[in-house]
Amino acid sequence: MPQSVPLWEQPVLRAAAGDTLRPGGFRLTDRAAVRIGLRPGHRVLDVGCGLGATVSRLRSRYGARAYGVEPSPGQLTRAAPGAQIVQADAQRLPFGDATFDAVFCECALSLLPAPERGLEEAHRVLLPHGFLVLSDLHANDDARPEAGSCAQRAIPLAATRVMVQACGFDVVLLEDHSLLLRELAARLILADDGGPRDCGCRERRQLGYYLMIAQKKAQAC
Ligand SMILES: C[S@@+](CC[C@H](N)C(=O)[O-])C[C@H]1O[C@@H](n2cnc3c(N)ncnc32)[C@H](O)[C@@H]1O
After folding, report:
1. pLDDT in tens, 117-151
2. Which residues line ligand 1 (CB under 6 A)?
3. Distance 39 CA to ligand 1 centre (A)
4. What's the 154 CA to ligand 1 centre distance in angstroms?
5. CA of 156 to the centre of ligand 1 (A)
6. How distant, in Å, are the alpha carbons of 50, 181, 216 from that of 185?
7. Using an 8 Å Cβ cutoff, are 105 and 118 in contact?
8. Is the pTM of this model over 0.85?
9. Cβ atoms of 215 and 129 closer than 8 Å
10. Which CATH number is correct for 19-142+154-178+205-216, 3.40.50.150, 3.40.50.620, 3.40.50.300, 2.10.260.10?
């Protein structure tokens, strides 16, 4: 597997994490879905949905009308047939204003070239008082390369919180789930096939993992 293939497109991550390409599998997805009161018929968008595991989960378990956006042709090819996924960039969502009750973004915000643009788009497509559910790695410094792994691109949590608030959201929940990141790192090491990769496991940055739920304020971003 060439080094340039990102970790989330490598078989070793699926071996370690399954189709949920992030720490914790559905644990934080379900926690957030319950916390925001997700109900049958609610419209949900999963941004950077990867293989569409969360889209399927929100449909089958909560009866939500869930859709995903994902730019990578490789991920779209590997996604389950019939998954409700549109090929698009989180920074230019192909949906109208005030379309969704909730937007999920799991382990994808820090990968965006302009995360604040992704937040603005999430804000735009959400209904007033709609929920933004973010889970991602965070770092203790903002020394981020322009491209790289989730570990290299991780944003300091305080900076993410400021960005989210500046985009017109109230943060209603913020939890540390760094243990889930450590568990996945351990599974990745055990699943290691010896191939070259940039999983971030050997990153010198101090990393953690969080769940944030934010609610769109009524007024415009
Ligand atoms: C670590 S994976 C997580 C996938 C999925 N959310 C999950 O948890 O299983 C990150 C995903 O973000 C996607 N991504 C990267 N850049 C993106 C962008 N500009 N817009 C939307 N998604 C993007 C990647 O293609 C990848 O599928």
Report:
1. 999 999 999 999 999 999 999 998 888 888 888 88
2. 8, 20-22, 47-50, 53, 70-72, 75, 89-91, 106-108, 111-112, 150
3. 25
4. 13
5. 19
6. 19, 6, 33
7. yes
8. yes
9. yes
10. 3.40.50.150
